[in-house]
Amino acid sequence: MRFATVDFQGSPRAAIDFGSHYRVTPFQDLSEALRELDGDIAALADISEFETIDAGEAILYATTKTPHKIICLGLNFTDHVAEMLHDRPAFPTLFAKYALTLTDPYAAIVKPEASNAMDWEVEIGVVIGKPARDVSLEHALDHVAGYTVVNDVSFRDFQNRTSQFLQGKIFERTTPVGPWLVTRDEVDDANDLAMTLTVNGELMQSGRSSQMIFGIAETIVYLSRILTLEPGDLLSMGTPSGVGAGRTPQRFLVPGEVMESSVEGIGVLTNRIISTGSSTS
Question: What is the pTM of this model?
């Protein structure tokens, strides 16, 4: 099944994607729906109170707008580690984002005046369904509601000011997520999917999730030793090579450019870069 968060009479609502139309539920987004339904995403189909929206008229918001936690992996693809001139990590490199960092799958993204090193990173997003604490590797994926696409837009000049990544990762409304949450049964193997990113149609990133150093189940196990993963939480699994900071010369985003971030079987994000004060339409 596929789910989305759509606009309904001016407000976001979790919805079920039926191809030609969306069935709208009472929940404001999929994170809230998962929390209220104890992680049972399929239970949305049993809710009797809903409206429908034609797919051609639907406005899609970030799949998860209100996650309690957003946990990201840096340096998690072998080729990306090499292009960034780092050693292969022995443990997951973790950083966090905040809900205010997220934006919609087709939203324009404002290039902040403070940064001149705005970079792209196509990633697989993992949305947690059931709570996970001290889980086993065998059952780790049982705690996954589904997958989405994330573009971890990064500001390298801020990121590289210290050894901690956080300040380069949390500019407001710069991390698009969506367009859909695709349930596990729709994806043959999330650890082996094609991932691409283009800028103005030029291929910048092309890799497969099989290059991940720490896979999805392994990451869930590791995180669940540290804290409880809750329904609606978002994990972003890292990016393959081809980022702007890893190129010679380095290449960063400027207003007017359009990114397309694609993960096989999950979806495509399309985001235009605009300058401060520009129209977001």
Answer: 0.95
